[in-house]
Amino acid sequence: MVAIEAAGLSKRYRDRLAVDDLSFTAEPGEVLGLLGPNGAGKTTTIRLLTTLLRPSAGTFSVAGVPASEPGRLRQRIGVLPESAGYPGQQTGREYLLYHARLFGLPRTEARRVAEDLLDQVGLAERAGSRIATYSRGMRQRLGIARALVNDPAVVFLDEPTLGLDPAGQRQMLALVGEIALRRRATVVLSTHALAEVESACSTVLILDRGRALAAGTIADVTRSVGAHRLSEAFLALTEAGRP
Amino acid sequence: MNRWVVVARQEIRDLWLGGRGPTLVFAFSVLLSAMTYLSATNRGLNFLEQREAVNLTLQVAIAVGVLATMVVAADAISGERERHTLEALLLTPVPRRDIALGKLVSTLTLWAACVVVSMPYLWVLGRSTAVLGQAVVLIALVGTLVAVGLTGVALLVSALSDSNKTSLAVSLFVLLALFAPTQLPGMPKSWVGDLLVRVNPLASGMHYLSALMLNRHTWRQDLSYLLSPALTVLLTTTVFVIAAPRLIRLTRATS
Q1: pTM score, two decimals?
Q2: pLDDT (tens digit, 9 = 90+) per residue, A223-241?
Q3: Closest CB from A81, A90, A102 relative to B94
Q4: Are A84 and A99 in contact (CB under 8 A)?
Q5: Which end of chain A is less crowded, N or C, counting CB atoms within 10 A of the terminal residue's CB?
Q6: Given an 8 Å threshold on Cβ–Cβ distance, is A98 in contact with B250?
Q7: Would the CB atoms of A54 and B255 count as touching at under 8 Å?
Q8: pLDDT tens digits for A75-116?
Q9: CA distance linking residue B255 with residue B244, whole number of Å
Q10: Is B255 in contact with B243 (CB distance < 8 Å)?
């Protein structure tokens, strides 16, 4: 069973096509890098696949659940949205406990999951502190923990390293690797940073102006345009059609 | 456990432990203290009868209590949009109408607090008369009917607004527009005036209160005036039950 299957997925906002006839698959345990310049349609693609937006055309399934069952689909996925907000007055523990309860976990189980996740993302010592006192890196790690409260089969991370210092970025990428390895979850990692994709992803999907330009392993994509590195391939693909 | 209960519990915690609820109730009690003091002194000087004093305080308690509740409801969805916290909530498998119900219930705890806080003031003005019991029942029943309806309206406005400021401004304007006619003397005397009162959920609720408190009508005599607040409750509930998935979205413009 494939973890993600999208066929002819499109999203139109009035006269603008944000995602255009996108088709791709991702296997279980795969870390898929979603690459593209600003406005390429990465966030829209993630919002379509996580049922926050309804596609204008096309179909998809995530973790074997078709798009026609959004409630059941959301039960199987975890998402760290781009520029996610956090309720500053809640503590990290309270926030995770709340979200675990929203996914239907009984109180004791939710408490155990929250404590385990806080430990895994290195926030155990600050679990009782208000989120308002957390640094950006701590908030991002809390966001990852929240994305894992339901033990998802597929995890979507939209720009998880945005605004983090180099140490924070390294920590975040290590977490991404752990999610795929230990939990055997499929990870979709949307980012601008090519170095991150090279270090953390097994496959890539390059988008530009809503269309898929290339998909496959990093080696395949690089070779397909006669480049030596992913960055060269990315620039060759995304700048080819520009004036 | 129903998931709307989980949403409601957390929202109640945020409202009351976050400080917004206590602040609004404090402001409500300060205003009601001033109102009660003025009513009591006027009654002492024989400018107001006891029934009039209780009725006046009751009406102010309902209007200000509804105002406080609408302020919280107006922030419930548009505020989460602005703070970017709505997306995480929408990514859970909780149905959108459960989210709306949880938020409505938590907001109404503020109204419940306003009712409780009003009790001593009503007791001070109406003690040792039958009017006290009547006032308590009226705020609990008629006041709650009006509060639920208008809180639903504010929640609807919040769902339809991308900006928290817009949501708050529209909700307050709606309340003001509904409240203004209650201050006009002799509104229901002509059929046009009566119609305007009957279609206005706040004015018709207030009219019902006055009819019982001041004119000593029976409970059933003016019951038709409660049709408007009851219909407001029914209408907002129906809208949320049917259209919650289309109303509670990431942004008002996306679908």
Answers
A1: 0.91
A2: 988 888 888 888 888 877 6
A3: A102
A4: no
A5: C
A6: no
A7: yes
A8: 999 999 988 999 999 999 999 999 999 999 999 999 999 999
A9: 12
A10: no
